[in-house]
Amino acid sequence: AYPAAPDSEYGWEKLFSERLYLSYQKNYGIQVRIARFHNIFGPCGTWEGGKEKAPAAMCRKVAEASPKGDFIEVWGDGKQTRSFLYIDECLEAIRRLMKSDFSGPLNVGSEEMIAINDFAKMVIDISGKKIGIKNISGPTGVRGRNSDNKLIKEKLNWGPSQPLVEGIAKTYKWIHSQVLTLKV
C-alpha cells in the first residue's frame, strides 16, 4: 500500500482510516486490528436491488433464469478477474486476528483467482440449468484484483480452507430459495 496510489477516493478513505486507527493506538494505547477484506460473500447477504456484490448478483441472475435456452448478462468481456472469500472463512480469519497481537493491516481474502465468465459458468453448473452467458457493456472495475495472503499466513497461520465452489454452492442454494419465495 505504500507508497500509496489508490485509484479512487474510496481507496484513500480506507488508507486514511487505517492511519487514523494506528495513531489512536500509538497516542492513546487503544488496541486496534486492521483487516482488508477482499470480496466477502455468503448466504443472508444482500442479493437484489443493485447493492449486491458480484457473487450474489450472479447467483440471483442464474436462479431467475429459465432452465433451458435462457442466458444471463455479464458486464464487460468477462475476462476480468477477481477472488472471492466465503463468509465463514472470513469469520475464522477475524477470530484469529482478534486473538493475535498483530495490528495489521492484513488482507483477508482468497488467492483463488477466477475470470468473471468462468465464475458465471461455475454458478450455472451448480444450478444444473442449460443457460448461456451474454457479455454486455457495463462497469467492470479494474482488470484484475486478488488477495496477497503472504502476511496473514505468516502472522496468523491462516489461509482459506475450502475452494470457492463450495461457498458458492451454499450461497446459490440460499439465493435460489429467496427467488422461489418471491415467486410464490
Task: Write structural notes for this entry.
The chain has 184 residues and is an alpha/beta fold. Helices cover 45% and strands 17% of the residues. The chain has helices at 9-28, 54-64, 87-99, 116-127, 150-156, 164-183, and strands at residues 35-37, 40-41, 68-75, 81-83, 85-86, 106-108, 113-115, 130-136. The strands form four sheets. A two-stranded parallel ribbon has the order 1-6. A two-stranded parallel ribbon has the order 2-5. A two-stranded parallel ribbon has the order 3-8. Helix 2 crosses helix 4, helix 2 packs across helix 6 (164-183) and helix 4 (116-127) crosses helix 6 (164-183). It is elongated and about 60 Å long.
Cα end-to-end separation: 49 Å
Based on DSSP secondary structure assignment, what is the total number of beta strands? Answer: 8
Q: Counting H and I runs of at least 4 residues, what is the number of helices?
A: 6
Spans of at least 5 consecutive residues with low confidence:
none
